[in-house]
Structure formats: structure tokens, C-alpha cells
Amino acid sequence: MKKLGFDESAINELVEQIEYFEGEAPQRDDIVRSYFKEECIETIVDDIVEEILKLNKEKH
Q: Which residues contact 32 (CB under 8 A, 6 or more apart)?
């Protein structure tokens, strides 16, 4: 993170936000699962991964 220009304070804040997010993640996961079937979630994740991989290939 320091290579990207973040100072110690910004890094610590990011770590705190990640830890908070991880603590709430199971509850949010349950909410998402209540709206969508597992198959639908897997399709969405697969599509997102595919798009990210495309972006990565375009950069190289």
C-alpha cells in the first residue's frame, strides 16, 4: 500500500474498514441469499470474474 502512496494512517483506516466488513459479511451474505438462489449468485460472480480477467488482459 505504501508503494501506492498511502500513508500509515490511511493504511490503518483501510484495515479497520476491512475488519468491520469481514465481521458483517456473514449477515450480508444471508440477506443476499434470501433474495437470490445460489445458482444466480454463482452466475453473477462468474460474470464479474470474467470481466475482471478481461480488464487484466487488456492492460498487458
A: 41
